[in-house]
Amino acid sequence: MPIPIPKSILNFIDETPLTSILDWLKAFLTFYIKPKKFYDNFYKQETKDQVKQGLLYIIIFVLFFWLVSGFSKLDNLKVIVIVFLLSLPVSLIQYLVARILKVPPVKGIHCFSFVFISYLLYQIPVLFLSWLFLTNEDYTLLLWSNVVAVYSFFFIIFFFWHILELPAKRIFFAYLLMVLFLNIGLLFVVFFRVPGNDSNDSSDSIIAELNHYLEQVKDYPGAPYTRIITYQRGIGDYDSLTFKKNDSIFHYDKYGIDVYKKLARTNVLKLDSILKIVHFKKNKAALQSLRRYYFLMSGYFDYHPCDSCLIQSATYIDTVRKLIIKKTNKYIVDSAYLKSYYDFRKQAEVLTKGAEIADIPKEIPALIFFPDILLFNWFGKTPININTQFMNTVN
Fold first, then answer.
1. Given the DSSP bridges, would you call strands 310-318 and 323-332 parallel, antiparallel or unpaired?
2. How far apart (Å, rounded) are the C-alpha atoms in residues 384 and 211?
3. Element housing 344 (H / E)
């Protein structure tokens, strides 16, 4: 079934000469290479041609979104509205600064189209790199996406004053005013933000998916460390188990072992279900390692530990009756059972490290908001963590 073309687009095509459309498409590339030339040519046009050129870029932006995201028609309209709403506060601040600097209104009003078009066009490479990142699961691509996003942030805030070709002192003064008003704006946002809407989760989609599924996996803190088999006269043999989390040791008796075995078997079934629906390949590989670990540990107590795993033995004898009252053998948990656990840990740590490096550029804009940081410490770094029960250091 053919997709109907909106009437507004048909009218745009009918009323706009092909040569103009081709020129604007060439200018699209000029924006990324020579932005000053792009805006000089843009503002030399009549207002109606500026609107048409902006509409062309909106169409390109929407088509790009549709290609990489498959959004519905309604979602595409929402994207444009969101772009406009995000650009409006900065536009208003720039217009205020332009009025303070006594920039002629006819030129000062250009800030609205400058911010909107700049944000719109820079979002294309940002979103394209983000899409490549989600497709290839390579954090280098996310790093470059964030680099472009941060560059666009500074470009939008500061480059407009160079387009106006103001004297150097006035440009510097414009910089200071922009920083001042942005900080005031941030204070306003912090002061009036809705309680309960705060979120510390700045994770990317891969980390977020992994954490989401790990929340469904229940376990004791740390990793299995030692297994203790005890013989006690009149009672018989029984097991106990220790887990190590950082420098802390947690001891579980026979009842705790029974609970752990049930947890391990339940986790195997849960992970079997999760592995059928997990989206990202790296998450699937990590969760497969975790699944193997629980599968092995669910049957660990059905077999006697290996002789080479024995690290301590103690025997208590009734010297009068010359009978063994109690005997304990402590075994280190065989590394074969824990290999998959450490494989999971390593895979999760690689993801975490990649995400942390990719997020480094996002910290740079905080330099502009340094006064607010001193007041609220609100722009502190949010750590990226895999679900903590699996990421504790085991020595």
1. antiparallel
2. 10
3. helix 335-358
Q: What angle do CA 15, 81, 69 make, to 5 degrees?
A: 90
Q: What is the pLDDT of residue 1?
A: 45
Residue 3 has pLDDT above 90, yes or no: no
Q: What is the pLDDT of residues 250-275, one digit of tens each?
A: 888 888 888 888 999 999 999 999 99
Q: How far apart are CA 140 and CA 147, in angstroms?
A: 10
Element (H, E) at 26: helix 18-33
Per the structure block, which two tokens stand in for 276?
Answer: 């059928």
d(CA 107, CA 34): 20
The H-or-E segment that residue 265 falls in is helix 254-275
Q: Which residue has the tokens 């910089």?
A: 175
CA–CA distance, 56 with 154 (Å, rounded to integer): 25
> CA-CA distance, 294 to 291, in Å (whole number)?
5
Q: Which amino acid is at 39?
A: Y
Per the model's pLDDT, the better-predicted residue between 85 and 56 turns out to be: 56
Spatial contact of 158 and 372, defined as CB atoms under 8 Å apart: no
With residue 250 as reference, give the H or E element that holds it: strand 248-252
Residue pair 203/187 in contact (Cβ under 8 Å)? The answer is: no
Q: Which helix (H) or strand (E) holds 318?
A: strand 310-318
What is the identity of the amino acid at 158? F
CA atoms of 347 and 295, how far apart (whole Å): 18
Q: Please give the structure tokens belonging to residue 368.
A: 């502009």
CB 358 within 8 A of CB 176: no
Higher pLDDT, 315 or 285: 285
Q: How far is CA 247 from CA 4, 251, 267, 291, 375, in A?
A: 65, 13, 26, 26, 37
How many CB atoms within 10 Å of residue 87?
Answer: 21
Amino acid at 342: Y
Q: Is the dihedral of CA 189, 191, 197, 202 positive or negative?
A: positive
Say which amino acid occupies 377.
N
This prediction's pTM: 0.80
Task: Please state the length of the chain.
Answer: 395
* 382 has pLDDT over 60: no
| Structural domain boundaries in the chain | 7-198, 210-357
State whether the Cα torsion 217-222-228-233 is positive or negative: negative
Task: Give how far Cα 95 sits from Cα of 106, 113, 150, 178, 365, Å.
Answer: 11, 11, 22, 10, 21
Tokens of 360: 């480094």
